[in-house]
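lol so apparently i was supposed to do this last week
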Amino acid sequence: MGHRNLVILTGAGISAESGVPTFRADDGLWMGHRIADVATPEGFARDPARVQAFYNDRRRQLPTVHPNAAHQALADLAARWDGAILLVTQNVDDLHDRAHAAIPPRPGFGLIHMHGELLKAACTVTGRVCDWPGDLAADEPSPHHPQGRLRPHIVWFGEMPLQMDRIETALDRCDLFVSIGTSGAVFPAAGFVQLARQAGARTVELNLEPTQGARLFDEGHYGPATEVVPAFVQSLTR
Ligand code: BJW
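anyway here it is w/ BJW bound
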């Protein structure tokens, strides 16, 4: 197959054809919202009811959407790949998780939700994370601390993304980096391609259209994720 150590970064574009809106499209998730109000810790401190309602709506949508051919192609790859794959998603939906649950991966596969998960909540005092499939009230009490409240387990602007050490180690070792359905507008994820290049990896962008950072990739394949991802996976495993 030529490559052994893969890092795959996904963004909202991979879930778009499942019916989950992206962020920065004109009709995207932030339409009608100020980012400072719904995606920062300061916004949550100012108006927890508004922020909980924003994420409650998105959490309620999850049972109505399903993994698409792009999620399934990556799960298929992970079930067959005879090397290491770290799948790093910026998405807070559970569509990768469901695709991999249906086709169990080989050892050497890992999945990181670097911006958190909609189906989890975190204690505002201890940081402890628990499963949370339902709505969160504005002042949801935390089971982990008497003074704590529960907040969405989401990495907001100004907060540290999750498991960065593990991601950076994998980037340092990777020989193929694939970026799928992300605009590359948000750091540190937007900088992963440069870390992969420094490690000597081949870098590939799969997106509906070339992004602003397209020149940083050795190659790009453009079209809907449900078409370009299965085709690219097939080219890897041929
Ligand atoms: C398709 C498709 C189809 C559509 N098929 N493709 C100045 C300079 C540099 C950095 C900063 C700066 N000022 C502040 C910062 C840091 C800041 C940042 O990056 N800000 C930018 C605005 C500049 N970053 C942070 O604060 C992060 N923390 C941090 O940096 O900590 C310090 C640190 C230091 C050192 C090391 C490590 C850390 C935290 C960022 C948290 C981001 N959180 C969000 C919101 C979560 C809440 C929520 O879910 O509501 O995460 S922002 C939002 O953007 C969300 C996404 O995960 C993220 C990325 O978006 P994504 O996935 O790329 O979506 P879109 O909509 O932008 O793009 C969709 C793409 O899909 C497009 O390209 C389409 O073409 C494509 N597409 N349909 C294929 N069918």
